[in-house]
User: Fold Porin family protein from Eiseniibacteriota bacterium.
Amino acid sequence: MSRNLVGGLFVILLAGFATPSSATDLVGSGAIGARGGSMLFTQDERTKEDASPRLSGDVVFSYVWADHVTLDVTTGYGWNRLQSGNPEFYVVTSTPITLSARYFLRDGKVWRPYLGAGGGMYIWSILTQDLGAAKDPLTFERLRRARPGVHGMIGMERRMSKHIAMTGDADYHYIFAKDLGRFPSGYNGNKAYAQVRLGVSFFFSLSERINTGLPE
Assistant:
C-alpha cells in the first residue's frame, strides 16, 4: 500500500516535467495541501530497536509571507509497527501540530528548493495490538503524552500552474518526551523520527475582492 501511495505521488510529480508553467508572485496568498509518505522512529533506544517504517500523512495550511518565505501550520498522523514480540507494545504513533517556516531559493523559477524549520506539540503514544494505549507495567501510566518538539526539512517545490504546486521533502522531528519517572520500564526517552513526503498544495487569494456586480 505504501509503495502504491508514494509511487502514485511520484508519477504526478514527474508529470510536471511536461507541464508548461511559470513561477507566479503569490505573496499574500493562502494554500491548503496534503502530504503523504513514510516515517521511521530513530529514538529513543527501545523504540529505535523495535520500530519498522509505516505510512504518514499531513494536512498543511500555508501563507505566502514573502517571495522567499512561506509559513505553514501542519497537523498529521504517522505510525510505526513495533517488532517487540509483545502484543502489549505493538505500535508507536505521532500526531504533530506544528508551526514552521520555509525559505525558498531560486526566486522566479519553476523548480524551487527550500529549507524549513519549526516546532509545536507532538502527541506520541505506544499502543497495544488492540490499539488501546499501552501501560507501563510498573507504574500503570498510559504510554501517551503531549510534548513539545522541533523539526527541520529540506525539499523541492514544482510549480504546476498559478494555483497548484507539487512538493517533495525529507523531514526530521525531535520530541522532548523523556520521562523516566512515569515510564521506568522503557519507551521513556526523547523521541525522534525521520520522514519523507510527497504532496500537493492548492493556492487561493486572500486579498482579491469578489465582484458581486453591486455598486460600492
